[in-house]
Amino acid sequence: xxxxPLDPKALDAAHQALNRHRSSRHELVGPPTPxxxxxxxxxxxxxxxxxxxxxxVDTAVIVVPVDGFALIGSGDLEVGHGSPVGVLAVRGRHPxxxxxxxxxxxxxxxxxxxxxFQRIDTxxxxxxxxxxxxxxxxxxxxxxxxxxxxxxxxxxxEVRSVVERYGRLEAIxxxxxxxxxxxxxxSRPPRSNDDDAPSEGRVVPFRRxxxxxxxxxxxLLAVGTALLAGRAxxxxxxxxxxxxxxxxxxxxxxxxDRLEATRIEAEAQSQEEIGRLEAERLDLESRLxxxxxxxxxxxxxxxxxxxxxxxxxxxxQLAGEVVNPVVAVLRPPGSQRGKARIExxxxxxxxxxxxxxxxxxxxxxxxRIRRTGEQKPVWRKGDLRLDAAGRLVFGVLTDLVRHGEYRxxxxxxxxxxxxxxGEYEVTFVESESRxx
Length: 436
Description:
Blueprint: H1 8-21, E1 36-39, E2 47-52, E3 60-67, E4 76-79, E5 88-91, E6 96-99, H2 102-105, E7 107-111, H3 114-129, H4 136-142, H5 145-165, H6 213-317, E8 326-330, E9 340-344, E10 350-356, E11 364-371, E12 379-385, E13 391-397, E14 404-414, E15 417-430, H7 432-435
Parallel strand pairs: 8-10, 9-15
Antiparallel strand pairs: 1-2, 1-7, 2-3, 3-5, 3-6, 4-5, 10-13, 11-12, 11-14, 14-15
């Protein structure tokens, strides 16, 4: 038995109950009859309510387990409100049939009120019918793990223990049995609906009685023991549940510690990798800046060299006087129709090209002339700029462009380099004066 200190309020209620019984202790006499609350030897955690049977008749009796556990399922009933018996739970789904001789060793410890006994009889009949019984809250309690644990670990084992102690007996079923087949423990045969005809299994009328002081005290002690046992069982279950929760919490803490250590290690590795990548990025930026500087210097050198070569070429081209130049006026690229035909006079030293470009074009250009079908230019001139009238004027020695087909590529300065702007097809022919 679990040693649990009694609440002073509970002791006071017990004394009040004893006082209510002092004037009627002579009324609880005689053998047990239906409606009596019994204590069976060997059944320490449950009391038993006698539903049907008589000690004077050699037949079986029907009892149902009673306890002080607070949860009430759909097949159970809570009885004893306002009575000296106290509030008890009758487990209506677990009645059993025992030999009538069991009443000789049973101790009467109390009597239920008439109304409570009739409610119990009605509830057991409803359970036997196999339909939906009880309230919605009771059906919710049926699914409560704490209630299921109490039924599975206390009520059912105690019922089996009583059956084994007092012999192999017929069981009471919810649906009953047919013929001579013995029902399983925990079952009950169906009752007759004929209220006038007596039949085996019917609950017989009973008398309302009050017990003497000694029996009332025994009843209170038994009920208190059942309540304390139920409470102790609940506390033990909660202690086990709390232990399991604490173990899970400890496991979670250990897992969190491992995750934190992993996070710190990963963060350190990440910082190291970030530092390495940052150093590599700075090195690449430095090298890129050096390459850009070198490229800029090389480009400037190349530009100066090209400018010098162009100046020398122009000087060489214009070493002599420009005599009878041939002037070729061309439209902007795209608007020039067909090939440009230019006649070269024998006395002409240069061909002066005059390309009219509208406003809004580039500020400088490059011209390359090559013979059709060849890649190497015969003449090239860069850094050509438009004059105030928006014309691009340049001269080419007639000795460089002999009789034949040529392509003249016009390129504009854009995005740091020369890009194709337009192209002309030019045919140079010798005039008759030159041929003569």
